Amino acid sequence: MPEEWRRSVLVPIFKNKGDMQSCSNYRGIKLMSHTMKVWERVVEARLRKVVEICEHQYGFMPRKSTTDAIFALRILMEKYRDGQRDLHCVFVDLEKAYDRVPREELWYCMRKSGVAEKYVRVVQDMYERSRTVVRCAVGQTEEFNVEVGLHQGSALSPFLFAIVMDQLSEEVRQESPWTMMFADDIVICSESREQVEENLERWRFALERRGMKVSRSKTEYMCVNEREGSGTVRLQGGEVKKVQEFKYLGSTVQSNGECGKEVKKRVQAGWNGWRKVSGVLCDQKISARIKGKVYRTVVRAAMLYGLETVSLRKRQEDAEGC
Fold first, then answer.
1. Which residue numbers delimit the Reverse transcriptase domain (predicted)?
2. Distance CA 14, CA 59 (A)
């Protein structure tokens, strides 16, 4: 493989939340050779023909999207609310998921998934002697080797990560069937607090023995349709934060099963988008065709994201003017 393909530039991008002075609130995106990305697409197409990912994984899978995962969670919550039964959900957060994947673990998972050895060697060659520099506001660092993790910004990395997660969770899924994954976003559901706590511990053990790490501070617990105090979920002696609402894949889900807060946030997102591009939309010199494209891309997309999964009561429709 050309040496140029092994070099990359790492640009830290702020996550728009938390302290801007903390490095943990930045996501590193690698700028790589465009010809390398074309080669990655070719390899990805070959791998998808031979690797079968479990149905629990929604991330980067054909004919699946964030909307499908959000809908599956919402409909499950609605069924339990209508049946007046408790549903316990734990939203698991992994620390630096892509950056922590051990390379040897990646090769092992690829082979276990049935990938031919020649393709394993191709991917190994992509990661061998990979070097990068960090670019920031004051300049660039010296070039250094990268010996762990997947390339952030790579066209192939999402599917490689799906392969790793599929193999790491294979044993856990048999004991914890009510689980949904969207890449590294994991939701564990159960009818009892004790069971969801037990399943959470299984996931923690399976992930951390292979080099991944569950974030104790960002993993959260929510009880849907809670009728009595259900207590809290514990993880290795510490309490998991209990919440009444959670932002799952960009859509707010509430413990009471309602969708009112999500609708209000979508309306606000639409107005925020409008304010950003109002100069374009109100400019008489710009054609209606261009204005329509800008509106559909910035305003309508933000306003309607995930709303096909939302069910409103009549009073909510009247209040929001739907």
1. 1-253
2. 22
